[in-house]
Design brief:
Blueprint (H helix, E strand, L loop, with lengths): L17 E9 L10 E3 L2 E5 L4 E6 L5 E6 L10 E3 L2 E5 L4 E6 L5 E6 L9 E3 L2 E5 L4 E6 L5 E6 L9 E3 L2 E5 L4 E5 L6 E6 L12 E2 L2 E5 L4 E6 L5 E6 L9 E3 L2 E5 L4 E6 L5 E6 L10 E3 L2 E5 L5 E6 L5 E6 L9 E3 L2 E5 L4 E6 L5 E6 L8 E10 L4 E7 L5 E4 L37 E2 L6 H6 L3 E2 L2
Length: 448
């Protein structure tokens, strides 16, 4: 037998791992960028004029206004008993009396706060762009612990069956012990993970988006992937479940309905622009969502995705739609809060914020390519389908991109529940270990 070793070698290129991330900025003005919350016939919401509003759902009349420090942009309010919790782009986190609009206490993080907070067993949890997730005493605003990730945090933390879940800008989706802040597991995606309201959980599976253009279903017990769905662009919308379907929108202009068990597409609806930030609203046989930068709010048949009606405002709609007594209430970048008839889409009333100047929103997307010696950043124009190469290096953070999907913790436990030492090699720091300067920056302020 003879062998021919004169084989021609063929050049091939190994695809380098990519990490998708996004940056955005909103200027001051009267725009309503985030969704609100309804309790006892009153809608509560923040705006880019540094104010939190309480408005009567039936009349559209103001009940009270709170002036904070920093724009209230993506942060949704959280209401527990008779108090509202909300954070600002200035890094201020407030507890407010919903009857009077007076602040009870204020806590200062070191960067902007986006997403809703979560209250459980006397503790309020929220995330910040300073790379930390915080746990505060609900009554006093005193810090209990903080957990550090490898990037900014813009998601809403939530607790399910004794575990705290949240997504991070470092590309990981985390599961922590809510009492101690210790890590249980993490799941690695190829992009930033952020969303603004609690995620749906179905049969021990939690569903979340990533800027790597995938929508994920992950087992809550193990942190392992169940399925993923590939979109044409990123999304940060919070999905909603109804029966065996899960619904969400994307920056590829489509609103999707998937089978919750398999991740297979059932139908899609094409809007006139990007769909982002918001959580869709389901009422009876209809589903409502804003078209973000096309200025429309849409009402579809939830079974087949057919359009029932749409209503156009004078600005982008990144706000969640809320339901109150046969009406739909939502905010727009045109500085108005709207109330529409849920069946017909006819306007009932509109409420104007204190500042009539529309805010300016800029979004830049980046694809980071990991090389052996350096990293290359591709700036992605959010409006154009091409990439532009930017000649500068950036760091991916301490986690890197060694493996695209990692569910095992990279850290070693010294002690599972220790309150006087640094855990996970400095990833989670207790207040007793912080420097004096860090303590002064994050101390709660009690209002009298």
């Amino acid at each position: 037998m003879e062998f021919d070793f004169n084989t021609n070698l063929v050049d091939f290129e190994v695809e380098k791992p990519k990490f998708h991330t996004v940056n955005w900025n909103v200027t001051a003005g009267g725009s309503i960028s985030a969704g609100g919350l309804i309790k006892d016939g009153v809608v509560y919401f923040g705006a880019c004029d540094e104010r939190v509003y309480a408005v009567d759902c039936n009349t559209g009349k103001s009940i009270w206004t709170f002036k904070g420090r920093g724009l209230f942009v993506e942060a949704r309010p959280c209401i527990h008993e008779d108090h509202l919790y909300i954070g600002s782009h200035g890094g201020h986190f407030y507890k407010i009396d919903i009857q009077t609009g007076n602040p009870v206490w204020e806590f200062k993080a070191t960067d902007r706060i986006t997403g809703a907070s979560f209250v459980h067993d006397g503790v309020v949890y929220f995330s910040s762009f300073d790379n930390y997730v915080y746990a505060l005493n609900e009554k006093t605003g005193t810090e209990l612990w903080r957990f550090k990730t490898g990037g900014w945090n813009g998601s809403c933390p939530q607790i399910h069956e004794g575990v705290l879940y949240f997504g991070s800008g470092d590309g990981n989706f985390y599961a922590l012990n809510p009492k101690s802040g210790t890590e249980i597991w993490r799941f690695k995606t190829g992009g930033a993970v952020f969303y603004y309201k609690p995620l749906p959980i179905y049969n021990n599976v939690i569903f979340f988006p990533s800027t790597d253009h995938n929508f994920y279903a992950i087992n809550t017990k193990t942190g392992k992937e169940v399925w993923r769905f590939k979109m044409g662009a990123r999304t940060e919308t919070t999905p909603v479940i109804d029966d065996v379907l899960i619904y969400f929108g994307s920056h590829d202009h489509y609103f999707y309905a998937l089978n919750i068990l398999t991740g297979k597409e059932v139908w899609r609806f094409e809007a006139g622009g990007r769909i982002g930030d918001q959580k869709a609203l389901i009422v009876n046989d209809s589903i409502y969502f804003g078209g973000s930068d096309d200025g429309f709010i849409y009402c579809l048949n939830k079974e087949n995705g057919q359009l029932i009606w749409k209503f156009r405002t004078g600005g982008d709609i990144w706000s969640d739609a809320l339901y109150h007594e046969e009406t739909i209430i939502f905010g727009s970048f045109d500085c108005y809060l709207y109330s529409l008839d849920a069946k017909t889409g006819q306007e009932i009333w509109r409420f104007e914020t204190a500042n009539r100047k529309m805010s300016n929103l800029t979004i830049s997307e980046e694809v980071v390519i990991k090389n052996e010696e350096t990293e290359q950043v591709l700036n992605v124009d959010a409006e154009e389908p091409h990439y532009k190469i930017k000649n500068e290096d950036i760091l991916l953070g301490e986690y890197g991109t060694k493996s695209e999907y990692v569910t095992k913790s990279e850290y070693t436990h010294k002690s599972e529940y220790t309150t006087d030492m640094v855990i996970f090699n400095g990833v989670m720091e207790w207040i007793s270990t912080l420097k004096d300067s860090e303590i002064s920056m994050s101390r709660a302020r009690i209002w009298k």
